[in-house]
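User: Could you check the structure of this?
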Amino acid sequence: MKNDKEQFINKVIELAQKNVLAGKGGPFAAIVVKDNKIISYGYNQVTSKKDPTLHAEIDAIRKAAKKLKTFDLSGCEIFSSCYPCPMCFSAIYWANIKKVYYSAAKEVATKYGFKDGKIYDELKNKIKSVNFMEIKTKGSNLPFTEWKNKKDKIKY
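Assistant: Sure, the predicted structure tokens are below.
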């Protein structure tokens, strides 16, 4: 009998294949698991929903947070059909998920025409194909000062 982690990874592979065949998006699916139970499923729906942020991991994280009624998914694990792209890695980080299991390496996504490798290279080399320009004004830090002084803030 296969272990639970293998069953979860096989499930995301199956879901990713179905997603491609259904024409919903790329070959990506993810599930969020807590206490060995599936909390949510996520699918890449970038092309079908016309949303460049609708990646499988982000979809699964949003659904899990809604279901668990918290932005803090500590204690959860995520299973993905592929190594998460930088955007999804960031979402995983912000959700406080400490374990990620994946099936295909990020190099596989790059090989099949996805931007993962290019973005990781840009982050690593600090060379950007997108221009970032800071516009500093007198009030640039004001929202952060307000945040610092807010007594009833919810830290995350």
